[in-house]
Design brief:
The protein is of the alpha/beta class. About 40% of the residues lie in helices and about 20% in strands. The chain has 16 helices and 21 strands. The strands form five sheets. A seven-stranded antiparallel beta sheet has the order 13-12-1-5-3-19-20. The chain has a six-stranded parallel beta sheet with strand order 7-6-11-10-9-8. Strand 9, helix 12 and strand 10 form a beta-alpha-beta unit. It is globular, with a radius of gyration of 27 Å. About 40% of the residues are buried.
């Protein structure tokens, strides 16, 4: 019942009008968050789960009956509702770009319509968090990033599925314990300031923790004074308790102050004390911009705990995916449909489509091309790429590899996709990020990745625009 109400009112009207022909809907987004150069696809596993479990209970039907606007015949139809169509999607972890169909549904139009809200909220949320995380992980330059955001997330599902999306995009674990139980994401964490404050002294707090976890002694050192108290007490516990018993200090976390300055001073103090292997973790309202700046200042930070600005994508908190009709079966034939908006950017692409990515001989992504679904690209022949807005900007490529990005997930209501594990998705994402040029991954003024249209799709769009304009003039 997590459905926008107008989906049900439309479905009821479709049903009463005997209008439940096959339709094709595309899910795509128009703008990359943070004005970045790429986004990351995430949420497909939850889409699959939703479709597998989608049904209307007797309680749902009774609730809808109380609205007194739905026909009994329609409510009877909902009682036996089951997805019977086909769904194609880009794999989770794949870099994606504006206006590409990252998910396509081909099914009776009532089924397409009823699923709209859940498809959008699932892909929009996880793709948003995965995109933000990918930027943060990139900024960390190989240093570990831990997701710390559950307490600042916008609700329970946002905390849990946000951590899942973050893991796909490269964090090594989460502070959210549920995510290890549910998704096998490592749950990580040591202590809060309250733990330190609960003991008579900071030293006693560190000592107690070291006794409890001698192989995992990582202390929060900024409760009182990082350099005058926290680090000296950490070193004292290491030398007086851990090292004599064959253990090493794992490290410390700093959660306030000038992180660059403090980390440099801590590193000096540790090295002078013979604790060269002790790690420094930093937290406190971090994001990709601050991490990048810290490393430019040669901060001696080994890992980052990133919370609210990751789990809420604070700097740009809307992914903006939309779900639009692209074709309708009429009299046994597919008829392409498109929205011709007063806002040019909201004009949609017609027809059932394919999506292909071209790679050069060094396995770098050259461009994506959106095609009509019946087009076949022969990689043994040169392919002509052109800008769909400025078609005179073009080039012909040879010696390339081309991959279809839209993978069959459901066919005629049956799941045909072999779902990968979360670890496999994460590894796949890591490899796919290597195919992007560094210029595309810049945080500011990123190079615009090329998303072109095939000539048949470009001509179809042009033809339909002219057709609609003629009708408007009449």
């Amino acid at each position: 019942m997590l459905i926008d109400f107008y989906e049900l009112t439309m479905a009821n009207s479709y049903f009463l009008q005997g209008k439940n022909e096959l339709a094709s809907f595309d899910l795509f987004f128009r703008k990359i968050p943070d004005n970045g150069g790429y986004a990351i696809m995430a949420g497909l596993e939850q889409v699959i789960q939703y479709i597998d479990e989608l049904e209307f209970s007797n309680e749902d039907i009774e609730f809808l009956r109380t609205k007194k606007i739905f026909a009994e015949e329609f409510l009877t139809y909902l009682k036996s509702f089951k997805f019977s169509g086909s769904l194609y999607a880009v794999k989770e972890g794949t870099p994606i770009f504006p206006n590409e169909p990252v998910l396509t549904v081909i099914a009776p139009i009532i089924e397409c319509q009823i699923m709209e809200t859940m498809l959008l909220l699932t892909i929009n949320h996880q793709s948003l968090i995965a995109t933000k995380t990918a930027r943060i992980v990139s900024a960390a330059q190989g240093r570990n990033v831990i997701e710390f955001g559950s307490r600042r997330a916008q609700g329970y599902d946002a905390a849990n599925y946000g951590a899942r999306a973050a893991y796909i995009a490269g964090v090594i674990g989460s502070a959210n314990t549920f995510t290890e139980r549910r998704f096998n994401i490592p749950a990580l964490g040591t202590m809060a300031h309250s733990y330190v404050q609960s003991f008579p002294s900071e030293y006693e707090a560190f000592l107690a923790y070291a006794k409890t976890y001698p192989n995992d002694a990582l202390f929060l050192v900024d409760t009182y004074s990082t350099l005058k108290s926290g680090i000296p007490n950490a070193i004292k516990v290491a030398k007086e308790y851990l090292i004599p018993r064959g253990h090493r200090l794992k490290g410390v976390r700093i959660d306030s102050g000038d992180l660059a300055y403090l980390s440099k001073e801590i590193r000096k103090m540790f090295d002078e004390a013979g604790l060269e292997d002790a790690q420094i973790t930093a937290s406190n309202a971090l994001d990709e911009y601050l991490i990048q700046e810290l490393l430019r200042q040669d901060a001696k930070i080994d890992s980052f705990g990133v919370g609210e600005r990751l789990i809420t994508s604070k700097s740009d908190s809307v992914f903006g995916g939309v779900y639009k009709l692209s074709a309708l079966m009429e009299k046994g034939k597919w008829v392409p449909k498109m929205k011709l908006s007063d806002n040019v950017e909201k004009t949609t692409l017609p027809g059932i489509k394919g999506l292909y990515r071209f790679y050069d001989e060094n396995n770098k992504a050259i461009a994506d091309v959106i095609t009509l679904s019946d087009e076949v690209i022969d990689a043994s022949k040169p392919y002509h790429l052109f800008d769909p807005i400025h078609p005179w900007k073009s080039k012909t490529i040879t010696n390339y590899r081309v991959v279809s990005l839209l993978t069959p997930i459901f066919i005629n209501g049956n799941l045909v996709y072999n779902k990968p594990s979360l670890t496999e998705i994460r590894s796949y994402h890591k490899e796919e990020m290597k195919t992007l040029w560094d210029e595309v991954k810049r945080f500011e003024f990123a190079h615009k990745y090329y998303v072109d249209l095939s000539k048949p799709l470009w001509e179809l769009r042009k033809k339909l625009i002219n057709h609609y304009l003629e009708k408007i003039e009449l």
